[in-house]
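Structure in, sequence out. Go:
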């Protein structure tokens, strides 16, 4: 179905592997188009409850954008808008999307990882936004999400120097949630999603939505939280969850 992605669905977890190992999984326009289509598949397939995005091989998650395309006369604003729209699709997915970062996550790769709801890093991971070395700035949301995740001072230092940081520094900065050995990366990520997948799907989606409103100046986050709480309150899953709690048994959520 895809030329640049490998996809698998196992136990309701949809794994998207960017598969251009000869290019360190760099993002070209075909990868971006296929990522967009894959996220449409995520939303439309009820069997998918959560998503992992990772890179092929051990060296690189995504080493950046395919720079050769920058010299083909494309309009910068068009490239940026397209990338931002696709990454918004990931960020606003109603199902959890986790980046399993193996190796380099640079430029567009760091931006892709940050668009995911959270990140698990292998101990060989490297993060950076080196666009200033090309006379550019990040264009797929990197200036915004890096600041949100790490704070203004750290974000500006990384953006202005173009320096890379290792996985443990990324953990210290709040850029990643966990650092594990490379061979344990997918196992750790899957173990987290297995816990999430047994929760109420509507509540999971509303948690993602409500948290995203923190960074959306057009919305009042507290109002949106109250609306989302009310929508969850009306679901069959809320009745099931509260009944199961009272009866001291595990809830069986249906997503309704």
């Amino acid at each position: 179905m895809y030329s640049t992605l490998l996809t698998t669905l196992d136990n309701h977890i949809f794994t998207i592997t960017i598969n251009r190992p000869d290019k360190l999984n760099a993002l070209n326009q075909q990868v971006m188009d296929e990522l967009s289509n894959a996220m449409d598949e995520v939303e439309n397939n009820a069997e998918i409850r959560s998503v992992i995005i990772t890179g092929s091989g051990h060296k690189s998650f995504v080493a950046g954008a395919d720079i050769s395309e920058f010299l083909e006369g494309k309009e910068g604003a068009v490239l940026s808008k397209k990338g931002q729209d696709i990454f918004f699709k990931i960020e606003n997915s109603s199902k959890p999307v986790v980046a399993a970062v193996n190796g380099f996550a640079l430029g567009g790769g760091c931006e892709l990882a940050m668009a995911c709801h959270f990140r698990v890093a292998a101990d060989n991971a490297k993060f950076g936004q080196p666009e200033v070395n090309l006379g550019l700035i990040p264009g797929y949301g990197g200036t915004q999400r890096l600041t949100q995740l790490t704070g203004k001072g750290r974000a500006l230092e990384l953006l202005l120097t173009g320096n890379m940081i290792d996985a443990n520094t990324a953990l210290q900065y709040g850029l990643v949630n966990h650092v594990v050995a490379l061979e344990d990366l997918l196992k750790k990520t899957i173990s987290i999603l297995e816990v999430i997948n047994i929760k109420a799907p509507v509540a999971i989606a509303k948690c993602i939505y409500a948290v995203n409103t923190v960074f959306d100046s057009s919305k009042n986050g507290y109002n949106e939280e109250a609306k989302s709480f009310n929508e969850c309150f009306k679901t069959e899953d809320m009745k099931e969850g509260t009944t199961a709690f009272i009866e001291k048994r595990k809830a069986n959520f249906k997503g309704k």
